[in-house]
Design brief:
CATH class of the largest domain: Alpha Beta
Structural class: alpha/beta
Helix content: 10-25%
Order of helices and strands: EHEHEEEEHEEEHEHEEE
Strand content: 25-35%
Radius of gyration: 18 Å
Number of domains: 2
């Protein structure tokens, strides 16, 4: 199988929220300390790339629409601008992300797009040196399994970190594509309605099971929790 292993790696408050700027203060550390611990764990994984959703990627890409004039029909369903990692992978079903280059912090950008994305947007990505995969859809959502298969087969990825918002994380979990879930748990609370670590309209009850693998006590009062994830339909 060419599908890469997927580890959902997140940092969150005790009440399961994602925005450190909203967290309570602690005598043990600060949000910078806890996010620094998260980044160190990210680096230790030495994965082939990371996956986020459109909203998260837009905060980093910062491009404006600039479709090239007179471009011919771009390739579908795949364009490989670079086939070596690490990769910065974004879900962008509607083709709303824009880039200024084909790399972010040295990681090559791959965009996973819906079947209705217009040629002018694909031509823009080609011109920017960005790779992409146009993915079939199921019930209006990207076929995430097919997308991962393509990233494994054509880009050689064997292990990816899922670091999205709650909706993206929930979608991959509901599809049975996450192998491990790791959480840096900060000694802080949010108390508001900011984004959750995992979210989804239908929920995940009856879809996955988590098996505890271990916990490490980190500096500044944080914990690193590790779980194996099993789709319920495959569990015995």
């Amino acid at each position: 199988m060419t599908r890469p292993r997927l580890t959902c790696l997140m940092a969150g408050s005790l009440d399961g929220r994602l925005h450190p700027s909203r967290w309570t203060e602690s005598p043990d550390g600060t949000a910078a300390d806890w996010t620094g611990a998260y980044e160190a764990i990210h680096d230790r994984h030495d994965a082939d790339g990371w996956i986020v959703g459109r909203v998260t990627m837009a905060e980093m890409a910062k491009g404006e629409p600039h479709p090239p004039a007179g471009a011919g029909a771009p390739p579908r369903p795949l364009h490989v601008a670079r086939d070596r990692g690490p990769y910065a992978i974004a879900l962008d079903r509607g083709g709303k992300l824009h880039f200024t280059a084909g790399e972010l912090h040295g990681d090559h950008v791959i965009v996973l797009l819906g079947a209705d994305v217009p040629d002018r947007h694909l031509a823009e990505l080609v011109g920017d040196g960005v790779s992409y995969v146009v993915v079939d859809e199921r019930d209006g959502e990207l076929d995430l399994a097919a997308a991962l298969d393509m990233v494994g087969e054509r880009f050689g990825a064997r292990h990816l970190l899922l670091e999205g918002g709650g909706g993206v994380n929930g979608s991959f979990l509901a599809a049975g594509l996450v192998d491990h879930f790791e959480l840096v748990l900060a000694p802080a609370l949010d108390g508001g309605d900011s984004r959750a670590i995992v979210a989804g309209d239908a929920g995940l009850k009856g879809k996955v099971r988590l098996e505890f693998l271990g916990v490490d006590q980190l500096d500044h009062g944080a914990l690193h929790l590790r779980y194996a994830v099993t789709p319920v339909q495959d569990a015995v």
